[in-house]
Structures are given as structure tokens and as C-alpha cells.
Amino acid sequence: MGFLDLFVVAVVPVLKVLLITLVGLFLALDRIDLLGSTARPYLNNLIFYVFSPALVSSQLAGTITLQSLATLWFMPVNILLTFIIGSALAWILIKITRTPPHLQGLVIGCCSAGNLGNLLLIIVPAVCSESNSPFGDSTVCASYGMAYASLSMAVGAIYIWTYVFIIMRIYADNSAGNIENVSTADSESYTEALLPSSEKSSCHDHSAHGELPETVSDGKKVTFMERTFGRFKKFAANTNLKKVFAPATIAAICGFIIGIVSPIRKLMIGDRAPLRVLESSASLLGQASIPCMALIMGSNLLKGLKRSEVSVSVIAGIVAVRNFFLPLIGIGIVKAAHHFGLVGSDSLYQFILLLQYALPPAMAIGVMAQLFKAGQSECSVIMLWCYVLAAFSLTLWSTFFMWLLG
Hints:
mainly alpha
């Protein structure tokens, strides 16, 4: 598979996202106003409460079985490592660039969460369908590739709507004048607060006084890690766990149960399943989530083009993390996992594991930014640059990964 062929394969899915983003930008113009400030929250709520849960549950139910969990167990671990390593690199970036507090959660989200779903669902079948594909028979490759990509999408969605969702919520709540300034009607239309009402006032009082003291009573200075752990411990103690779980997380749990429990799976999954209409309906609803996320990103981009507080150094840092540092680290992790027998010799499986480190940020980050009223315009500017550059970086890394596995 030549470089030009691979370039076309890698650039097409990214161009699709960018084109839909431009449509969202056009619909948000004042003269059109179909995705203006009034319409965006409604579309965002549809994504949050309906489309994303439907997508996650249908993908998990269709791809997860006890057998697949036994053979593909390293993929969830690998995806979790991308989130943890990305978060660590984001923390370093925040310290170097002195990112404003209200954008720190956004930076962590963009560095940790990659687009593990729709890009892989487009790239992998396209690579398999090429006559000179390095992964063997196109039919077998496409079948296994779609299963791997679907699992990647489902597991990635779980981490995004738990790990990243909670982190971005914490930073949004702690940033000055963010959630507290949102009207009651607006906050109810987005999502319920994580803290019980009885705790909100005390939490607000602590945040107004710096949350944790810089020194303790004996004069010893409290370290950054101790203060961070203290904040997390206080948040965990006050958190209403019923409200932590986003709709997509609950849907993921349901999808796991349907996929793993054989009697339920036989009822709902398969061409001859009596209740297959439920799964197909959920899948049909879920297909709307990806284009709607891109439309939201484009509509927020209009505001970002007019005025954005994100600095060039922050954008460059996020691009460097996602396009350079994460892929390099990923090569070491996947190669080490293969060396120690944690990953089999299936080159297509290893290729997807490597690609998970080289993808641009997940579009769900834009949905969360809209939900929490934290850096919506800045998020769109970051996404624009990341996806434009991903057209080239994905091609280069895909070529290198295939050479490495060959």
C-alpha cells in the first residue's frame, strides 16, 4: 500500500469531520441562526441524553461477548493507558504554559481522550479493502477490524463519560464564576450538579478561600500533590454517586450486560433474535451522535474565531502531545506488551492498538465544554487545528506503524 493510497485513506475520515464542522459553522451564522445560542443547548442535550447512550449501548451489545473479553482484554487496558498518560502530559503542559484555570479541564480532556470511535470505524475498513493491504484477506480483515474498532469506540466512550467527564466537571466547578453563574433553568437543561445541594454552599465557601491552605498549623508547607489529593478526597466524600454516572455510562453498563449474558444476547442480538428491533433502533439513534457532535463543534467555532482566550502555546502543546509524544510512548507500550505475551501476533490488532495513541481529540470534549459552559469557543479552535493537522499526522503514523508491524 503506497504512501499516496494511505494518505487518501487517512485523510478522508478527517475531511468528513471537517466538512460537517463547516456545516455547523454555517448554520450558526447570524443570518442563518439554525444552530445559534438558543438551539445549541437543545441539540447538546439530545447528544448527551439520547444519541451517545444509544451509540454506546448498541456497539457494546453487538461486539462484547465473554470470548471477546478473554481474547481482547488488553484493549481496555491500552485505552486506559492513553487516558492516564495523556492526562500526565497535559498536567506538564498546564504547568509549562500556565494555562488559565477555566481552560485546564479542557486541556486535560483534549490530551487524554482520543477519537477512538468514528475515525477507526472509517480508517480500518478502508485499509482492509485495499488490494495491497498488509493485513491479508480483505473480508476477514474487515470483519475483525470492525469488531476491534467497535470495541475501541465502546470502551473509549466509557472512559470519556466517566474519567474525562468527572475531571472536566471538577475543573469547571472550581473555576471562578463558572457553574455558579449559570441560571437555574440553564443548569437544569444541561445536567444535574454532582454535589448534593446541602454541600454546595460549603464547597463554594472553600473554593472562595483557596479550598486548601498552603501551610498547616505547624508551619510546614503543603505540597501540590497533598493539596490535589485533599481536593479529590473532599470531592469524593461529597459526591452524590447517583449523579456521577452520565447517561452514556449507564448505557455502557446495559450494553455489557446484554452482550455478556447469553440468554439476553440471544433475545436481542442477531438476525433471528426476537427483540432485534430494540438493538437496531438503538443503533439507528446512535448513528446521529457523530455528525451532531461535529455540528456542535462547528457552531461553537464561530464564537472562537471572533474571540478566543486560548494561547498559541497551549494549542501547539496539545498538538504535540497527541501527534508526537503519545504515539511514541504507544509504540513502546504495545511492543512491550507483545514481547511479554500480553498481545498476540495479530498485526491488525496491534495496528489498532498503536493507532489509539495517534488519534485527534474526541469530539465529545466539545459536548462537555458546552454542558459545563467552560471554554466552548476555545475547544472549537483547538479541535480545528488538531483535525487539520491530523490529516497529515495520521497518514505518517499509519505508514510507520504498518512498516513497523511488517
